[in-house]
TrEMBL record:
The keyword Signal does not apply. NCBIfam families: PRK08162.1 (NF006020). This is Butyrate--CoA ligase AAE11, peroxisomal-like. Keywords: Ligase. Residues 22-410 form the AMP-dependent synthetase/ligase domain.
Amino acid sequence: MDKLVKCDANYVPLTPLTFLKRASSVYANRTSVIYENTRFTWLQTYERCCRLASSLRSLNIVKNDVVSVLAPNVPAMYEMHFAVPMAGAVLNTINTRLDAKTVATILRHSEAKVLFVDCQYVPLAREALRMLMGDSHESIAAAESLIPLVIVIDDIDSPTGVRLGELEYEQLVHMGNPRFVPTEIQEEWDPISLNYTSGTTSEPKGVVYSHRGAYLSTLSLLLGWEMGTEPVYLWSLPMFHCNGWTFTWGIAARGGTNICLRNTTAYDVYRNIASHKVTHMCCAPIVFNILLEAKPHERREIASPVQILTGGAPPPASLLEKMELLGFHVTHAYGLTEATGPALVCEWQARWNHLPRERQAGLKARQGISILTLADVDVKNMETMASVPRDGKTMGEIVLRGSSIMKGYLKDPEATNKAFKNGWFITGDVGVIHPDGYLEIKDRSKDVIISGGENISSVELESVLYRHPRVLEAAVVAMPHPRWGESPCAFIAVKENAAGKTEDVKDADIISYCRKNLPTYMVPKKVEFLQQLPKTSTGKIQKFQLRALAKSFRVPENSTSKKSTPVNKETPFYQPHEHMLALSRL
């Protein structure tokens, strides 16, 4: 056997680009993309991607050049997931909810050669480019070298005429060669995309994905979610978020239909589900509230079940139960940018179908088992690197290893080395393993509250708070306590009552509710009400802001429910940032 060698016939580097070429052949006349009144087939999508890749090469884009894009879930954003790597370049999808300074930081760090900008985000891009020019303290020529070539993506369904520079996306597609032969992938370890982390406490880090990792992660998620052929997939999850959890490539692999969505509003989600018989969608738990709180005129009847894959903060069981009653079948996943999106999926077992609905919702709130791409997943004591018992109680840190883990952080060997320890990727998330092998997230390692020697899971406490009928959003962090060292502090956003008021809910109501549903040591010692909780640009609650605020609170030793001094709501903390307003409109 030693004389057997690999050759072009028995070894081809893995890349998700093969999914599109296959779709153009075997699903040629199936609808690939729907965006309002615009439709394409898979053959048309392939030819458009070839044209765009051809035009990028004519603009002197070469192997491993970074091509950035600032756009919502429009057809161009989808096409670039194939066209950019077809030209040999690396795709960098930028979060549209970031501020101009952070966008400029990403463009500078990635050394992007091209920036595609949707017409909706031209003002943001213009400000980011101005900052990028201003950052250079060298010559004008040096400053100009930092500026990528800018290409505007006008709305293909309703053109606006907005421009920033001379080039426009459809112009490049029209000019390109539909018979362009995509750059051959010689090495599957080559980079395919660059995704930046949220950067809530420091500058964002550039996470590099390989062709191999993207290919294997895509297949693993299709299998883990049991996505059959011809899915109708609604893009309620931003494609800039871990390349749409790899479903940008996955829908091509399944010959499905992409329903593109510029704005994730309740009206648009329900309208598209009803119009196109959507079968699948992904979203963060924040979208659940948007759908549940929809006004009567925004709703449409859901004629057949819609499968939802959700990630982010663990959704409370009560929230999952409400979604099921609407007609959405929720599967929970867990992942992070460094793991090419979801790494665990709560794979459903048929025997659970006979359990009470409340028990089913509790099982669905777990993060589950590893996708097939991972070689292993474990929960470990980080001091000894020993695995914790599978008792569903003993907490440790979740660690991963497998082909879907990132190549590393761009230009940051120190952070890369810190993330990889003893052959494992260290997630920074705390969890437990149940006897059946399913993992459940309990917290971020920095969010565990240690009160009088007891470890308190903020996630577990938040889950109880979410079951209160008037709680819209909840976050729990540690605050100083003179006797116990630290104790839980709950920040709450309240649903309006029938009169449109929220003031009728008092901190004593919340604390009393917690006492009935939690051990005494887990009951919050303080409850603070906010109009909305601060969030990152990807919808995660910014607990570091809440922790900073909670540090200023002081509890008398014998106090358990006395309300703290009200915070001055004129301070910047309470001013809705632009990305927070965007989230509220999702």
